[in-house]
Amino acid sequence: MSTDSLDTRDEIYVGGVWTRGGGALIESVNPATSEVFATLHGATTTDVDAAVAAGLKAVEESGWAKMLPHERAAVLHRISSAIEINADRIAELQTLDTGKTLVETKALAMSAAATFRFTAAALETMENALTSPRGNYLSMSTYEPIGVVGAITPWNSPIASDAQKVAPALAAGNAVVVKPPVWAPWVSLLLARICEEGRPPGRSALCPSRPRPRRGRRDRATP
């Protein structure tokens, strides 16, 4: 399987900008041949901090968090359609990266598209709720974005797992920083390029990196 038609540029995605990561070199191996088919410089803690800062700025200044639910749903529908259009390309890249069969990786791509579409439909019907009062007052439940969501995804089904975390976070008006698996980062990066077609930049970041000691402290310390 050739990589000539696939996008394996040495770039990570931070705050709507594609840039070379400042971290260690990641070698991606084709499980069928045991050969390295692409290399990628991973993210550093500085890259992650920049991604979080860009995400917070996007939430506060872009208007994404304040968009009406049905307006955000329209963006998720566009992303879903873009995934379906690129399903064969996604499947080929995921097969190269994980060793799964093309039949399975095509199904995972379509599953990701369905997740974005389902989340969009749920968003379009989301309502605030009045709860039964226990006194002389009115009680109402409303939904607000929390800011930047961190998402760590596994290697075995990256496109489907990405969608299950990214779609709900975006639907709620948040920005997302994704830490894709070091063993299979390419489909997650491709999803970011596809998502660019459906929404303004700055809502998400893709930061692959080699595991580091005490990485969890960075996770907990990040807003």
Features:
7 helices, alpha/beta, three-stranded parallel β-sheet, 9 strands, two-stranded antiparallel ribbon, 223 residues
Structure description:
The protein has helices at 45-61, 69-85, 87-98, 102-124, 158-171, 186-196, 215-221; strands spanning 12-14, 17-19, 25-30, 35-41, 129-131, 139-141, 148-152, 175-179, 204-206. By secondary structure, the protein is an alpha/beta fold. The strands form four sheets. It has a three-stranded parallel β-sheet. Strands 1-2 form a two-stranded antiparallel ribbon. Strands 3-4 form a two-stranded antiparallel sheet. A hairpin with a 7-residue loop joins β5 and β6. α2 (69-85) runs antiparallel to α4 (102-124), α3 (87-98) packs across α4 and α4 runs parallel beside α5 (158-171). It is globular and about 70 Å long. The model is unreliable at 211-223 (pLDDT under 50).
What does this entry show, briefly?
With 223 residues, the chain is α/β, with parallel strands linked by helices. The chain has helices at 45-61, 69-85, 87-98, 102-124, 158-171, 186-196, 215-221; strands at 12-14, 17-19, 25-30, 35-41, 129-131, 139-141, 148-152, 175-179, 204-206.
